[in-house]
Amino acid sequence: MVIKITKCPACLGIHLLEFLKLNESRRGRFVEYSQTYYGGLLEQWLNHLEPVLLQCLDCGHIFYQFVPEDAELSQMYSSLIRPKNSPAPNRPPSQHMLYEMDRMFKLTGKQKPTVLDYGSGYGRWSQAAVKVGFDVVSYEPHSNRASADARIDLVHSLSSLKGQKFDVIWLEQVIEHVPNPQIVLRQIREFMCKDSILRMSVPNIYRTREGRNIWNEWPYNGESSHVVAPYQHLHGFSHRSLSALCSSVGYRNFRGLKMYTCDTVHQLRMILGKHSGFLSTTKRYLTLPDHQDS
Asked: Distance of CA 71 to CAs 67, 95, 250, Å?
């Protein structure tokens, strides 16, 4: 079965334009991508699943019109062939990750804040959270992922977290992978209280390695995975479309003096991003509507 998307996943708009699909040249590059990264799996889907990108005319969001169901997505990820000499996915967190997590720790203003690392993958961000002082719960739906750190509570089902609330929800490079990001953002509200902060980041189509060639190089340039590679990333977010998504689900941006002192550059990019794609950001600090700014 194939899921057909009929409304914009970001703003729920219905004014959609067919943006890109496979021609003869792109089809050849798609097959090369399939063989390089998935051992030929994706080209087997072409009879029932054709890669077509749509653009929302209301918020500019880019997304696939037809997406695989969960079973096929799981099959795709399990068949991933990592390039030779690529860094180990479970390597220790980088200094940048530690810096970002420490900034979040300071933003909470608490001595021992709690964090839910939602979609934790191989656990590098969870490791960073432990190192800077968080109490950490990691949620990773793929049951073959395990944690080697006893300080991290790893769960594979959201039902096991029922009733729990967290000071921070960490959502790093997750919602571009899911067919319906609205569902994920609504689920997360269950684990937030009025003072919780949702910190979210997704790839920005205006700040990619492809640069101005981003759409000429889709779906594969023969060297590196595309920012909207089928069907690894199901969405191409921009500053505008991410804002539309957050607003449509009922979140609002975390503000206040502490926010400006903890991440001044982010605040500037939030302002400048309304006018410049290159200076924009697809990182957000979010709260529920009844949050009181400090």
From this structure: 11, 35, 30
